[in-house]
């Protein structure tokens, strides 16, 4: 079965109506473009371009294809981030606050329902990441160019790449936490089988083998203090730092907090201008009894 059909069947099978990649619509745009330019075969015969491609920098495709795809990607990332944040807030809540979230969201207040929601969110993120990668690959094939890859890099700088989302990293850590905890049932629920926390030369890293050969490697070493992240925060560019180190880089005190920093500050690693006030506290990575990912693993790997 072709991916386009599988993708449509998956999205149609969702209970809630979610933002999607207009796979069929975008492919039709490219098909019309290649058909339109295939009539000029005489001019193409003297060039190295295949007959079924249209020229690089095609104004018709670039004026419709990329804006349409960007709008869809923005909607997908926004929906994913919002739902992931709500799920993790519910997971970390306790007592009356947790019941309040359950009643407010009209969701089933069970451990299994929480796990299933996380699994569905990760699958949603991954299948859309594959869809976007495939449609950009198709664009480059039709245009015999690398504009699709350049667009992908541009989207990453705009924080519209779903695999770059800190909330996806949080869900990965959420999965490992549930798998490691003793409270969990023996019948482990896995979001994806290839997710693991490993240590190389004493440094932790989160590695995930995802759908369609997609691989994510997340270094859990702070690039400022060069130690394992402690009380970690993630910037909008996706880089993770210790909270104390991030405050130091933003030239603010821990008392004032990083949200008091200048909005024009740059990421200490990639030097991209990113509002440090928009940080996300990466709670699932934290070394604490409530969020045991690094705490449990560090004790196993480094018992001394």
From TrEMBL:
Catalysed reaction, written as an equation: S-ubiquitinyl-[E2 ubiquitin-conjugating enzyme]-L-cysteine + [acceptor protein]-L-lysine = [E2 ubiquitin-conjugating enzyme]-L-cysteine + N(6)-ubiquitinyl-[acceptor protein]-L-lysine
Pfam families linked: zf-C3HC4
Pathway terms, separated by semicolons: Protein modification; protein ubiquitination
First-tier enzyme category under EC: transferase
Residues in RING-type domain copies: 222-271
Gene Ontology MF annotations: ubiquitin protein ligase activity; zinc ion binding
Coiled coil: none
Segments forming domain SPX: 1-153
Keyword Transport in record: no
InterPro entries xrefs: BAH1, SPX_dom, Znf_C3HC4_RING-type, Znf_RING, Znf_RING/FYVE/PHD, Znf_RING_CS
Keywords: Metal-binding, Transferase, Ubl conjugation pathway, Zinc, Zinc-finger
GO BP of this protein: protein ubiquitination
Record's keyword annotation contains Isomerase: no
EC number, UniProt record: 2.3.2.27
Name used for this protein in its record: RING-type E3 ubiquitin transferase
Organism: Arachis hypogaea (Peanut)
